[in-house]
Amino acid sequence: MAELLRDREAVAHGLSVMAVDMLFHELPRMLEEIVGRRQAAVLLERLASRAAEKGFREFAAKAGATGPLEPLHLLTIFLRPPSGEKLHPFQVASRLETGGAGARLVLAEQLGPLEAALLAGVVAGVLTAAGHPARAVGSRDAAGRACGSVEGLEFVVYADDASAVVVEPCGRS
Question: Is the pLDDT at 31 greater than 90, yes or no?
């Protein structure tokens, strides 16, 4: 067994597969059973946002990024690479559509509502970590309410029928 742990890449890959399965499949299912779908979506958005914010700050620090990054450029990290070889499990969008100051990450495959809520949370966390305060919300209606009630909020992020993640600037939703 000790020989298996010497291959760091294999260990990291195995832990990554475990974490992704737990986060994308097991946790949403368990939360839905315990608190219902609507509350599970809210909890997943918050959990994913906080974790992504922390993780992206760590990544940016190690990569040497300084200052705020362009929000639309940041969203490209969620696009699937042309080679098909993902660098991280959140590369799930087939294209990025932009219009005005907002954007839509069109998903390569439709996600379930809880997985889409989790992804919206991840996008919000990455934007926040990069200097653009964002909040994942449950719907377009909730987006307008959040923009009007949260001071300093730049963007709201929500899943649009589980086929896209929408990023809207506050003041234009």
Answer: yes
> What average pLDDT does the chain have?
87
Q: Domain spans of the chain?
A: 2-169
The pTM score is 0.86
3-class DSSP assignment, residue 109: coil
Give yes or no for a contact between 97 and 104, defined as CB atoms under 8 angstroms apart: yes
Structure token digits, residue 89:
């499990």
Q: What is the rounded distance in angstroms from the CA atom of residue 73 to the CA atom of residue 92?
A: 16
Q: Distance of alpha carbon 9 from its chain centroid, rounded?
A: 25
The residues facing 90 across adjacent strands are none
- DSSP line for 156-173: EEEEETTTEEEEEETT--
Could you report the per-residue pLDDT of 43-89, keeping only the tens digit for each? Answer: 999 999 999 999 888 888 887 777 667 888 889 999 999 888 888 88
Sign of the CA dihedral 142, 106, 91, 99?
A: negative
pLDDT at 5: 56
**What integer pLDDT is reported at residue 3 of this predicted model?**
62
Residue 44's closest CA among 122, 112, 110?
122
Q: Which fold has domain 2-169?
A: Muramoyl-pentapeptide Carboxypeptidase; domain 2 (3.30.1380)
